[in-house]
């Protein structure tokens, strides 16, 4: 039996690997390596349990630190594991430091690399994620793209071979999760949340939450909002809200601050929201899948299709702009299934079968 290694390390990557793990396990020895990039043990365990993902065979325990140090430590540990396991293929996901380290470690050992979510571009090279995805794509032997736009991005960079438009694996996972929790409204009822009766907010990117002025602008916009606001607060964000003394501005009757929620409960919040305010790439996609209008707290996005089709609006972090967009946002009347039919993992497995 041939061996395939999946390198993961963040919660969005747990979501992406779930359908792949299920699809590969009958034919391959599939090893999950968790770098530990998202180091919250309880949250990681919850995600794996909810999505029926096998427990990772290796947990490298490399927690958050400076980008270079974190990636370097991952590279050292991954190389050791790959030399021992001798896999026939390494699969990397998305655009994190775990993605970059997996691509580098495998390619230096001449192990073929498959990149899921290849070709995504925001064209902001200041973003660590943009740097990671560009390098990962150019080191990969197989590029699995979510859309035709991402495939075209690769061709523009002179990547010509083994490009496959398969759709988005997060849609596979989302459809499974929605079906599993279809009749479960307990979480929303426990917080007295009505359908389309609130705005859902997620903010976690370092470019937003590590800068006092940008975070303050976002907080001020929420403070001025008259609608019900539901805000699951990322640990990094909460720490900086306290550090910058911004947390008291969010103590309003219409603002509900929550601890981070599970994947299933997050989907319930996204599906029932009037709109979503976020700086997360994954949440932008989930909003599109669930047909919930999205307002993105960034100047650019790698998920350009969501903007072109009217379901996602880029606003940056200016308070007045955010408030204006929130007050006037309308749900589009048209919708296109841009990211496949929820069977990306099967298409990916078929390509891998032929490759190996």
Describe the structure.
- By secondary structure, the chain is of the alpha/beta class.
- It folds into 2 domains: 3-168 and 340-355, Glycogen Phosphorylase B (Rossmann fold, 3-Layer(aba) Sandwich); 179-328, Rossmann fold (3-Layer(aba) Sandwich), CATH 3.40.50.
- It contains 16 helices and 13 strands.
- It has helices at residues 11-24, 41-50, 67-85, 97-108, 128-139, 148-156, 169-180, 186-190, 206-209, 212-224, 235-243, 263-272, 281-289, 304-308, 319-328, 344-355; strands at residues 3-8, 29-34, 58-59, 89-93, 113-116, 142-145, 163-165, 199-202, 229-232, 255-258, 275-278, 294-296, 312-314.
- Strands 3-2-1-4-5-6-7 form a 7-stranded parallel β-sheet, with helices on both faces.
- Helix 1 (11-24) crosses helix 7 and helix 10 runs parallel beside helix 15.
- The radius of gyration is 20 Å and the shape is globular.
- The model has no long low-confidence stretch (mean pLDDT 95).
- Keywords: Isomerase.
- It comes from Candidatus Kerfeldbacteria bacterium RIFCSPLOWO2_01_FULL_48_11.
């Amino acid at each position: 039996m041939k061996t395939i290694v999946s390198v993961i390390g963040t919660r969005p990557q747990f979501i992406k690997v779930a359908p792949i793990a299920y699809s590969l396990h009958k034919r391959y020895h599939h090893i999950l390596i968790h770098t530990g990039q998202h180091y919250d043990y309880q949250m990681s365990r919850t995600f794996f349990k909810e999505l029926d993902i096998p427990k990772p065979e290796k947990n490298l325990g490399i927690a958050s630190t400076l980008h270079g140090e974190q990636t370097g430590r991952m590279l050292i540990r991954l190389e050791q594991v790959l030399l021992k396991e001798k896999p026939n293929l390494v699969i990397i996901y998305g655009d994190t430091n775990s993605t970059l380290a997996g691509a580098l470690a495998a390619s230096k050992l001449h192990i073929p690399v498959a990149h899921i979510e290849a070709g995504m571009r925001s064209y902001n090279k200041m973003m660590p994620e943009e740097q990671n995805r560009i390098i990962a794509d150019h080191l990969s032997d197989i590029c699995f793209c979510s859309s035709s736009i991402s495939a075209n991005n690769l061709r523009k960079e002179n990547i010509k071979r083994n490009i496959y438009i398969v759709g988005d694996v997060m849609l596979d996972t989302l459809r499974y999760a929605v079906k599993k929790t279809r009749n479960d409204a307990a979480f929303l009822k426990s917080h007295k949340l009505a359908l389309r009766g609130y705005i859902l907010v997620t903010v976690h990117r370092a470019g937003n939450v590590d800068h006092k002025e940008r975070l303050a602008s976002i907080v001020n916009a929420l403070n001025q909002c008259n609608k019900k606001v539901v805000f699951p607060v990322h640990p990094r964000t909460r720490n900086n809200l306290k550090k910058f003394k911004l947390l008291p501005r969010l103590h309003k009757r219409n603002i509900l601050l929550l601890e981070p929620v599970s994947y299933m409960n997050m989907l319930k919040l996204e599906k029932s929201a009037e709109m979503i305010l976020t700086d997360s790439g994954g949440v932008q996609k989930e909003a599109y899948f669930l047909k919930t209008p999205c307002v993105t707290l960034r100047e650019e996005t790698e998920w350009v299709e969501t903007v072109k089709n009217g379901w996602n609006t880029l606003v940056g972090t200016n308070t007045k702009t955010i408030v204006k967009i929130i007050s006037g946002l309308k749900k589009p009347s048209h919708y296109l299934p841009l990211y496949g039919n929820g069977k990306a993992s099967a298409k990916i497995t078929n390509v891998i079968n032929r490759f190996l």
